[in-house]
TrEMBL record:
Binding locations of AMP: 409-413, 438
Upper classification of the organism: Bacteria, Pseudomonadati, Bacteroidota, Cytophagia, Cytophagales
InterPro entries recorded: Carbohydrate_kinase_pred_CS, CARKD, Nnr, Ribokinase-like, YjeF_N_dom, YjeF_N_dom_sf
Cofactor binding comment, as recorded: Binds 1 potassium ion per subunit.
Keywords: ATP-binding, Isomerase, Lyase, Metal-binding, Multifunctional enzyme, NAD, NADP, Nucleotide-binding, Potassium
Gene label: nnr
The protein's name in its UniProt record: Bifunctional NAD(P)H-hydrate repair enzyme
């Protein structure tokens, strides 16, 4: 699914209006109906509703929503914030249409602000995608009122005050909704951790914007929905054998962290690889043979750390990093691997930390290798960034410069491709914020690479399936009880 910028969204609206054709007020009616369909499924009509409207099209949506909800027997109040002399045409039309049902209250100054009963659900239709500057004056006061009230707030399209495709300042007044019900497409702002409280839970409602025009839009930003992930999966051929699915090598673990190697290895096997070899320090030999009998074990000459590899030319994919430690000898082994490897690697955890400390290694990373940093590891690698939008841009430039794929891990892991395209993940949950889940991801992606998935697909699909397994684990165990092993147990890539 594509993620468009503000200008493209405006064009898509305009194209739909002209070519469907549908009048812009009827498109607004569709948007309001779609919002109300979600709203009525979520909240019963015994809850009072107060709609706060600006004077642009977002406010117009709010007026139409108020009318529809009032027709559905909700007890609705409407407040219009008079912040400008210019109202949009569709706002004015909806104001007329509302007059048979309700009389709105005007808010011009602070003393006009209402007291809200606790049960009231507030609908935020102050400002939408037309936001051109931070909210101020009476608009900021209303935002402040809603944020300090204990009421549930639902934002129409986007929280008022939040920019769709660029960073806000920390001091900007922005609604902090419980839900954002957005039209047709997710917005870039939703994927930034800095915006978590300004988005809440978000849902997309379809308003029938032109799909052909949408297909023609160029954007570097995508959202990995189930349809996209499933289109990547290759079915297993009836006559396939273990050689068909590759031989993966995972180089991981150190004294006290052999578990990281086991987690990555088990995840690799559970993701469909034909054969797996684990390269681990000697202290992990028995642990690995007992806990993962399906894997072959290559034992390092060192007892506690991975320090030396034999030839790696026979492997179909190589993953390195989980629990590796950062010993000098390990760093030298990594440098040699980067120079000798003829295929894209999966590079995680301490392997990334070693590269951060030896910047000359960056140029040696094989093309299309997949790096899986969490935000701190990415900061060590690429330096400080001003905000999450800036971090994403830095990631895009980094991926392009070194011709690599970066999976910037988080709630919506961003898979950044060598051409600068970004695929935000849609699966996963906060139960995955527990030790070892990153090791599991390394195993999954290494497995997919071994099976012959192109690196871009291995990264996008691996991240998606990792999150999906996490979601299954959460629904079975609960987010607090689930651990990384549960993510592995719930893998099912087919
Ligand atoms: N047919 C369609 O296109 C559809 C559109 N839809 C809906 O329209 C929404 C976009 O509507 P929109 O473009 O009218 O912008 P909106 O956000 O309502 O307000 C802009 C007004 O506010 C002003 N303003 C800006 N910043 C401000 C600030 N900080 N403080 C105060 N004022 C500020 C700005 O004025 P200006 O920048 O010129 O000063 C302008 O007057 C979109 O999110 C969706 O909900 C749906 O119905 C589907 C069909
Ligand atoms: N709140 C969250 N929502 C969704 N996924 C999450 C969340 N927190 C962590 N994850 C996922 O869990 C994994 C954690 O990886 P990482 O930080 O490397 O952990 P570890 O080093 O303990 O293995 C990443 O894939 C990340 O995307
Ligand atoms: K809004």
């Amino acid at each position: 699914m594509k993620i468009l910028n503000v200008g493209q969204i405006r064009d898509l609206d305009a194209f739909t209006i002209e070519n469907e054709p549908v009048s812009s007020v009827n498109l607004m009616e569709r948007a309001a109906q779609a919002f109300c369909w979600w709203f009525c499924n979520q909240f019963v009509n015994t809850r009072p509703v107060t709609v706060f409207c600006g004077q642009g099209n977002n406010g117009g949506d709010g007026l139409a929503i108020a009318r529809i909800l009032s027709q559905k027997c909700y007890d609705v109040r409407v407040y219009i914030i008079e912040h400008t002399a210019n109202t949009s045409a569709d706002f004015s039309e909806n104001l007329k249409r509302l007059s048979d049902h309700l009389t709105p209250f005007q808010i011009r100054k602070e003393t006009d602000l209402p007291d809200l009963s606790e049960k009231t659900i507030c609908i935020d239709a102050l400002l939408g995608s037309g936001l051109s500057r931070p909210a101020e004056g009476i608009m900021a006061k209303v935002i402040g009122l809603l944020n300090t009230s204990r009421n549930k707030v639902v934002s129409v399209d986007i929280a008022s005050g939040l920019f769709i495709d660029k960073s806000n300042q920390e001091t900007d007044p922005i609604i902090q909704p419980l839900f954002t019900i957005t039209f047709q497409l997710p917005k870039l702002a939703f994927f930034m951790p800095q915006n978590a409280v300004f988005v809440g839970e978000w849902r997309i409602v379809d308003i029938g914007l032109d799909t052909v025009h949408l297909l023609q839009q160029h954007t570097p930003y995508y959202y990995t929905d189930s349809a996209h992930a499933e289109s990547i999966i290759r079915p297993r051929n009836k006559f396939s054998h273990k050689g068909t699915f590759g031989h993966a090598l995972i180089i991981a673990g150190s004294y006290g962290k052999i578990g990281a190697a086991i987690l990555a290895g088990k995840a690799c096997l559970r993701s469909g690889v034909g054969l797996l070899t684990l390269h681990i320090p000697e202290c992990g030999y028995e642990i690995a043979q007992i806990s993962l009998p399906e894997a072959m074990v290559s034992v390092d000459v060192d007892r506690k750390f991975n320090t030396a590899l034999g030839s790696v030319s026979s492997y179909s994919s190589i993953g390195i990093g989980p629990g590796l430690g950062q010993e000098d000898a390990t760093a030298q082994m990594l440098a040699k691997l980067l120079t000798e490897a003829r295929l894209p690697l999966v590079i995680d955890a301490d392997a990334l930390n070693i590269i951060s400390q030896h910047n000359d290694l960056l140029d040696k990373i094989p093309a299309k290798s997949i790096l899986t940093p969490h935000p701190k590891e990415f900061q060590r690698l690429a330096g400080e960034t001003a905000n999450d939008f800036d971090r994403l841009e830095t990631g895009r430039k980094f991926a392009q410069k070194y011709n690599i794929i970066i999976c910037l891990k988080g709630a919506h892991t961003a898979v950044i491709l060598p051409n600068g395209d970004v695929h935000f993940n849609s699966t996963g949950n906060a139960g995955m914020a527990t030790g070892g889940t990153g090791d599991v991801l390394t195993g999954i992606i290494t497995s997919l690479l071994a099976q012959g998935y192109p690196p871009e697909h291995a990264a996008i699909l691996g991240v998606y399936e990792h999150g999906l397994a996490g979601d299954r684990a959460a629904s079975r165990k609960g987010q607090s009880a689930m651990i990384a092993s549960d993510v592995i147990e719930n893998l099912k890539i087919d």
